[in-house]
């Protein structure tokens, strides 16, 4: 019963599987923290001095959109009157 409790009865393959399973929460913690960092912290740190319209336009260019596609949204976020197309 001791061999079963400590996982020695099924061989090295199962021990490796248990190691991978045991390390999975650590990997999930690190990758989740990196995703949060890229989504929240990095965005606010890099664009502290810019207006909302500038940051929306820059994000649009980074994602492959033309800045003029998002001008009404940027104006709305900045509290300005939306330009009529």
Question: What does the secondary structure layout of this molecule look like, with pairings?
Answer:
Layout: H1 2-5, H2 12-46, H3 52-62, H4 71-78
Mean pLDDT: 74
Give the N-to-C terminal Cα separation. Answer: 76 Å
What Rg, in angstroms, do the CA atoms define? 25 Å
Helix residue percentage: 55-70%
- Give the domain tally: 2
- Given as residue ranges, the uncertain stretches (5+ residues, pLDDT < 50) are none
What does the overall shape look like? rod-shaped
What pattern of helices and strands is seen along the backbone? Answer: HHHH
Strand content: under 5%
Largest sheet descriptor: none
The DSSP helix count reads: 4
In terms of structural class, how would the helical and strand content be classed?
mainly alpha
Number of strands: 0
What key phrases describe this protein's structure?
85 residues, mainly alpha, 2 domains, 4 helices, 68% helix, 0% strand
Notes on the structure:
68% of the residues lie in helices and 0% in strands. The chain folds into 2 domains: 46 residues; 35 residues, no CATH class. With 85 residues, the protein is mostly helical.
Summarize the structure.
The chain is mainly alpha-helical and 85 residues long. 68% of the residues lie in helices and 0% in strands. α3 (52-62) packs antiparallel against α4 (71-78).
